[in-house]
Each structure stands twice: as structure tokens, then as C-alpha cells.
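Contributing: when you submit paired examples, paste them exactly as shown. First protein:
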Amino acid sequence: MSHSPLMRKLEPRDHLGHEFFQTTDTLKQQLHSNPPDVIIVFGPDHFNGFRWNMMPPFCIGTAATSMSDWDIHVEKLDVPEDLALNLIKDLRGRDFDVAMSREMQVDHGITIPLELLMDGFASIPVIPVFINCVAPPLPSARRCRMLGKAVGKFFGERDLDVLFIGSGGISHDPPHPAFNDLPDSVKDIMLGRAPWGRDQERARQQRIISAANALADGEEPCLPPNVDWDKGVLAILQRQMLTYADALDDDWITANGGRGGQEIKAWLAAFAALEGAAGTYSADLLYHEVVPEWMTGMAIMTAYPQHRAEG
């Protein structure tokens, strides 16, 4: 599922955004009628919970709390600690030394899908898996796929009903300047030396809102969403051609899908997790549109193990 915090601030000028919410409402009803034992959500962070003073490629939370970015409510997630710890231990045996957080702060990159699909962040057990999609050096697409598959193998060996969520925009290019171009006061925030003050947070949000309005008016302060690029990467996932993604170079992703296009790696990890847990799967693209006011190629895809889809 794509996320865009702008959906909390800007009303689309046509039906496109409304159809996105209609689709998530339907999925929420399905999830409510048949809740999983646990949700594993692969998602990024936007220099809120993770900053340049310590930026791991991957991190799993054994406890987590939502952040208030974009006015999202603050609430502890119901993280099953023992299961998360066993997952981390198992990944070490599969050559993944992931970082661990006993107090993970998760921003809208992980919370927006949970907000749309659940009755509160603590209504279903959740294990958050952070993937660095913003701060070079980035984990490669291949490594993200392999991590997802390793997570899936862990759960495939357990008698649990699991929902894997990959949270990220498809093509989008938010106006984030390079680190060296930042003023010293903002560098201090990015390095964890100072908190995001309310004024700085409002200014940051307004900068993004202004860019989104300009994009909707036909201006291009950033790269516009790339529909053809979206279709190409979504096809790789839908057709279970995941190893093809190994060749997706970071520079190519940014040049064609924007700086935010790196978030497709969260989708890749989630589909690889399903593949690792259950083998062949069947996937349906439920929604894909560019919503200019949200600056993003927005998409929702569901997938089930092949044997379940056939049943």
C-alpha cells in the first residue's frame, strides 16, 4: 500500500483519492472480519524516528510507539516482544544482523497503513520492520528482497496467520534537500542533536504542501510521478518476478521514480516475505492512480498463497 501524509491535509480535486479510501475501507472490513495473528509491516522512516546519527539499513522493533508527525495520534503498538526477539535471532542464523530497537518510534511510513486498516494501532499485534529508504548508503533492492524472504521463512515455519504489509509510495519526489545543502540548525536536527520543534515541523510540512499544490497546478518543483515506472515495478511484484528487482540500481530508481521511489523496496520485502513463507502467490492490483495533490503514484495490491487463492 502506498502512503502519503498529504492525504491528511489536501483534498484531491477529482475522484482518484476517494477511490483509494474506498479500497482501504473494503480491506479494513475484511481484516476486521478475519484478523491475522500478527501483522509484519515493512516501511520507511522520514528522518523522524531514525536520523543520521544512527541510520541502520534494517531495524526490527520489539516495542514501538507511533509518532505525532502529520498530526497522527501517539499510541503504543501491540508488539509481541518474544516473537520479535525470536525473529531477530532467527535472522541472525540466516546471515542478517538486523538492528533491534526496544523503543522504536515509527512515523507515517509505518503508521498510515495501520491507521487505515485497523481500529487503533494496538488492536492487532504488529511487528515493525524499518527499511532505510532515504539516507545513503541505502540497502540494495536485492538485499531488501533477501531480508523479506528470510522473514517469510521464519513465519512459514510457524502455525500463525500472518499479514505482511509493504508500506511505501510508488514514484514520488518529495522536496528533501541533500544533507550538505542544509543549514546548520537543520543538520543538528538530522543528526539527532536537537528535536524537531513544532515550528520546524510546521515549516517542513508547509514546504511539502506547497510543492504538492504546485505539482497539482501543473508546475514541477519536483519530479512528477511516473506512471510507466510505476507499472513496471508493480508488474515485477504482481507476476512474482522478484529476482528481476535485483537489477534495480538506486540511481536508476531515483532518476525514474524520484527520491521517494526507493520506498518500493518495502513492497519488495513484503512480497518476498510472502514468497518465503508460502511459495507461489497470486496477486491483484486493486488500485493505481497518480494523485497530484498527494505528489505520489498511489497503489494498493493484495496477494495470497496460490493454494489459498485457488481455494
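Second protein:
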Amino acid sequence: IVDSNFNDWSAHKRLAIINEIYSGNSSKAYNKLKSVVTDEFININRKFQAPYRIENWLHIFACSNWLRSLKIDNDDRRWFLPKVTETPNKHEYWQEFYHWLYEKNGLECINAFAHEFVEKEGHVKKGEHSPTTFWKQEVIEETMNHDARMVIDILREIELTKKESLLISDQDIADYIHNERQGDSRYEIKPITIRKIAKGYGWHVCDFNTSSF
């Protein structure tokens, strides 16, 4: 998916299953999958054939045991990240489950449940954000750099200690982090990045002119 220039694995498919996805602090996998996840049409590049364009019906089901599975933006709308149990069930459980799945119409039951859920709850429509989860937020924070995580810690500390409404500038936070780094500006975080993080964590972000106060 990441290293090859050929993407015919995504052509004429309804489902692609990735057994293990891991990208660490790199956005390469996330960026290369953007079109496959959201675009109505995708360009296919197959070895020894001319590129062509097709309608996209592919769904991605990716698994990982790592928090750094994907470097996801805080305002991501493409990925739904649930966390499954890490406690393994006994062999007898799986015997009974597979018996129900294939011998007792389990697949039909799951299909009926899915249709009933969509009728009652709806589904994520084009342009909407996928539901957020605690696990998704964990993944987002794990792939952030040190300064971005410092911003989150500062905002959370403020929320725990403040007793009334508070106005704080992005530059104040940037200056604090700069001082914590003892003047090291090689990885200096920008105010615009601070505003983006704050907005993603529910803070009201606005522009203001100090002369108006």
C-alpha cells in the first residue's frame, strides 16, 4: 500500500482487509489511503498497463496492535477507530460461535442487524465525520510530537484548575513551550498549530484585537 507505485489491489473490489497496519510518526500511509477512503473515483495504476479511472466502491478494514497504527489528524473525518477486547476467549467459545455463524444462520442475523441499525440510526453520509472514539483520540495523541502533546497537557491542566471563563492566547502557550525547551527553536510549535489543537479539544478559538479591550 505504502511503498509500491502500483495500486491495482484497490481496483474492482468492495473490501480490502489489512491484517497489520503500522506507520509510526509517518503520514505516508494515511495520505496514500485518503483517495481510496473518500473519493468517488480513483485512478488505477497496474503494472505493464495504461492507467485508467474507475468508480470507487472499496471499503478498508485495517487492524493493528499498536497505538501508532496511523498518524491521524485531530480533525480527521475518514477513520472510525473502535477498540476491541484484548482478553482472549476459550476454544469452546469459538467453537460455539462458528457453529452459530455458519450452521444457525448467524451471518443472516448479522446482516439483518446491520440493515435495522442503518434504518434506525442512519449511516455516515458523504461529507460527514465518522464517529469519534476514546481509542481514536489515543491514537491521535500517540503520534503527535512532544510539543503538540505539551499543548494538550496545558489545556487539560487549565480545564482542571480554572473556576471561571478564561482567555489565553496561542502565543502565550508557544512562549511557555519555548521556555520549557530552554530556547531550543529547532522544533518550535506555531500558534496556528496550537489553535488547531485547541479547537479539536473543544476550546472556542477566535481572533481578537487587544485594542478593543
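If you have annotations for the second protein, write them as plain sentences, like these:
The chain has a mean pLDDT of 86.
Strands lie at 15-18, 41-44, 52-55, 59-62.
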